[in-house]
Amino acid sequence: MFEDRRIGLALAMPAAVFAAALFLAPVIILLSEGFRGAEGWTLAPYIDFFSSDRNRVVFLRTLKLATLVAGVSAIIGYATAFAIVSLPPASRGRMFALVTLPLMISPVARTYAWLVILGRTGFVNQILVGSGLMDTPLRLLFTETAVFIGLLQLFLPLMIISLISAMENMPRDAVPAARVLGANWVQVFFKVILPLTREGLVVGGTLVFTGSMTAYITPAILGGSKVLMLETLLYQRVTVANDFASAAVIAMILIVMAFSANIVLKRMATARARR
Asked: Which pTM value belongs to this model?
């Protein structure tokens, strides 16, 4: 058995070295730029980054939108996943296909569709002005609301799929048993469904939060230069200012935020399970 393990490690070593050389090494080199200063290794680039009011606003906006998208996705995702799991097998398969269908469409096309919907002459403004609710079209594009809607539509399927997978592994008689014992739907959700699907929530929350935080296309199209997020700010630092040190700082912040979100969600799920 020990010999088989050694053979397996020997066979996997070339692939590991290849991955480290082509993937890990460039990332490490890029991130190390954020710790270099005129006097050697330092945290000054990070201090300078957060000393700027503009950078702090972009950081807080990114954190706020990613958190809102993840939270709203969880609320909608639980309702949708529970409804799909409750369907007969044939209908469940069709509904699951509809949920996964947006993932097969390019994010660029899905985001540009919101330009048609939210534009000054778009579908939403035509209804508002045509119905007399508004005299002039609303400015919906290039706002945080537009970015939020675009990110929610982009990443909601990931949350739904994660929760469907978790609910399908939940005991079939758990919810009916709780209802028979007198629990209302709020108690059923917090006492039965949520504890039994916490792993799916952790996976879905991490995917949605990380995806919303690191998305570039949707904030760039729907937010433009008026609603900057960390990813669009990073792009500006590289392409416009040619400032790779600041870009490395932003990249490190994004990585730390992604890992922190996963750790926080796991801690919350574990703490609730213990209670």
From this structure: 0.85
